[in-house]
Amino acid sequence: MKCYLVGLMLILPQTMPAQSTHVRELVSALQEPARAQAASDELRQLALASAKNMKETEVELAGALKVRSDVVAFKREADLARELKLSSLAPVLAQSLEEDTRDKYRIGTLSHINGPDFDPAMKALVSFGSTSIAPLVEELNVGNRLGRYRAAYTLAAIGGPEVNAAMRDRYYKEADAGLKNYLGYKSDLLNGRM
Fold first, then answer.
1. What is the pLDDT of residue 192?
2. Buried residues in 61-93 as b, exposed as e (16+ CB within 10 A)
3. Higher pLDDT, 99 or 177
4. Taking the domains of the chain in order of start, what are their residue ranges?
5. pLDDT range class, residue 191, cuts 50, 70, 90
C-alpha cells in the first residue's frame, strides 16, 4: 500500500490538482482504525485514476512535442514533460534538437546560447539524466548538424563515463571540425586526461 500511496502523493498534485487536499484527508484517515479500510480503498482508486491520467498526459505530450512550429507551446510542453518526469519522452525530445527551439528572448551572451537554460528540450533531457543518453547518442550519430551540436551540448551537461565513451566514439567519425573539436575537449581526448 505504501508504494502506490507515495506515488500518488508525488503524481496527483500535477495530474489531478483538485484532488490533492482530499488525498491528504484520506491519508490522515488511514491512522483511524474505523476509517482505514475505506480510505485505503479510495486511495487505491485515486491512484489508478491518476496513473491513467498520467498515461493519457504522456501520450498527448508525445504528439504535441512532435509539432515544433509554435516555439512557445513547445517550450510549455517540454517544461511539463520535465516537471512530470516523463523520461519516456526522451526520444521525442532528442529528435526535437534538430530544430531551433531555444528561448531567443533570454539570450544575453553568445557563450551561453547552447546551454540547457535556453532550451526547454535540452533542460528536460538533462533532468532525465541517464535515461536520455541513448536517444541523445542516436541524435549525435544520425541527426542534422544542429541536432548533433545540441545533442553534444546536452550530453556534456549530463556527463559521466557513458557520455565520455559516446563522445569519443563520435569524435573519430565527425566531419564537422567545430563539433569534432568540442567532442574532443569534452571527452578528454584533446586535453590529455583520457
1. 53
2. bbebbeebeeeeebbebbebbbebebbebbebb
3. 177
4. 1-65, 71-194
5. low
